[in-house]
Amino acid sequence: MLLDITDDDRRDFALYWELIEKNRDELNARTLAWAHNTPVFAELLKNTPPAEMAKSQQRSLELQRKALLENHWDAYLADARAQGSAYAKMGIDFGSWFELLRAYRVVLAPLAVKHFQSDVDKIVRVLMANDRIIDIAMATIGAAYLEAKQDIISSQSRAIRELSTPVLQVKPRLLILPLVGVIDTERARQVTENVLHAIRARRARAVVIDVTGVPIVDSKVANHLMQTVNAAGLMGAAVIVCGMSPEIAQTLVTIGAELRGVHTTGDLEEAIEEADLVLRARTAAQNAIGNELDGDSQVPLVDGGANQVRANGGA
Amino acid sequence: MPVPILRQGRNLIAALQSELTDSTWAGLAELLLRRATEARSKGLVVDVSRMEVVDSYAGRTLSNIAKMMKLRGVATVVVGIQPDVAMAMVQLGLHLEGAQTSLDLDEALALLAEQHRGGHERAQR
Which value does ipTM take for this structure? Predict the structure, then answer.
């Protein structure tokens, strides 16, 4: 494990500390000079007042001292995590951080050679200690960086999901749901949920789902459409799907997803006309899947009963 | 706990509670058929808005009741299926075959009245 620090390690850390204590000014000056020549960091340095810079440097040195000499890593690691997520939010490229580390290494090596007077054993131990410290810091910074990026991504995709599935009411009892963009499983579930809750909240009797803006309708999306239509039917609302492009129509039939039982029209205008018929005829409830035949068979039953009465009356 | 069954004109209204025991389910068809016969009902409204779960047993039972009712000339409307319940039912493949569905009691009664009137007009022709 990176953080399993042995006594040998601590001895190396002490050597390392001795080196950078002695050469602090030169290290700082050279690394800063390098940073000023790198666009991302130059920008960052320009926006940070010198006093604040000195303070934060002082702080991180103290944290490093506590970690290396007293083996108190918690505060140091917490600081590294905070830095990681700050870089992610500032949009700093993760790779440029390694360039800064490389500059530091390049500066450190000759200083080590000079300081330890060609004592090879000490030089190697100091450079290895430096690598170890960088590894620990970067593992922590990297994890925090990725975590912060992941947070940004998930909050954005949440925003997209919420923005992209509006349910509009065009007139009493009629809802329109324009779908735009690629539909994945998660979004399809969201769409279904939105439609069903809107049906309940606004007492819809007809819902038009417009898929004109959906570039790909594959078997998965088709399956979700079917489920939405069937579930809406169970709640007593008729669903009309419109806007399938000729290409999509061909694809769906070729892959065998014919959307059986789903009422479809070519464009939105036709769909709204159809929905009007549904609203006027008050037959929304009959449009639930499997009820088309049942609705028809009901007629002879009622008639049969009436005929029976007449036949009895006649006899 | 017995299922409350109300008579409204020529319709019966049964409000199912959230948790029905298996024995209540088993006796439900017979009870409703008997009441429909006594009352000479033309329509049956089953309100499931209190139910948080409709499993395959419940779904099949409702569907069977609707089919039995149809044999007696009674149209069945299931009302008040909640959004989450509707989604779960579709995923289970339950379509309440034989029954019609409607948003709420108002809608169901309007639907039944319409169908009843239609039947009358046809009978008079």
Answer: 0.79
